[in-house]
Specification:
The protein contains 6 helices and 3 strands, in the order ααβαααββα. The protein has helices spanning 7-14, 29-46, 53-72, 75-82, 88-101, 150-155; strands at 48-52, 110-117, 124-130. It has a 3-stranded antiparallel beta sheet with strand order 1-3-2. The longest helix has 20 residues, at 53-72.
């Protein structure tokens, strides 16, 4: 009961994770950031990589951010992306090929597809890939398409459903 606790315990109960953005991934911050930089450079180069699910979910944020910087196309954006992406070839590909591909797309440039569990430690694995690319694992949804809500799908009758008389 919160009304019988002291201020310290109440503070512990209601504290929120303000400004806590990334998962820690069991690494110090410099190692974690170096790993994400390496992975985003590999993702730009190969356009699909396999990694663990938590790493893929964190990589998705960084990769989408880099594509957003590439869509800006300014010198300042190129320098900011150059602080993340390792190497000149991935940076050039980001600002030429990927920029042109996603110029009309408002967001959601990557997709995470869970695949298997790794032998040895049973870690859940996933592919992370760019959408709208040749050879993608699952075709992308159209840019302006509205997905039907689950409530509409549940209330609309299916054509194969038997008709009941009342």
């Amino acid at each position: 009961n919160a009304e019988y606790m002291g201020d310290r315990e109440r503070l512990f109960l209601v504290s929120m994770k303000h400004r806590i953005t990334f998962r820690k991934l069991n690494r110090p911050s410099d190692h974690r950031w170096a790993m994400l930089r390496n992975m985003v450079s590999s993702l730009i180069e190969h356009e699909r990589i396999e990694t663990t699910v938590p790493r893929a979910k964190e990589l998705r944020r960084v990769a989408d951010w880099c594509v957003t910087l590439a869509k800006e196309g300014t010198l300042a954006a190129r320098q900011r992306a150059g602080a993340i992406v390792r190497g000149d070839q991935p940076l050039q590909k980001l600002f030429s090929d990927l920029r042109e591909r996603y110029l009309a797309r408002p967001g959601g440039y990557t997709r995470v597809l869970q695949t298997r569990h790794r032998r040895g430690d049973n870690a859940p694995m996933a592919f992370i890939e760019y959408v709208d690319r040749p050879g993608e694992l699952r075709p992308a949804k159209p840019v302006g398409a509205q997905a039907s809500s689950p409530t509409q799908a549940a209330t609309s009758p299916t054509p194969d459903a038997p008709k009941t008389s009342s």
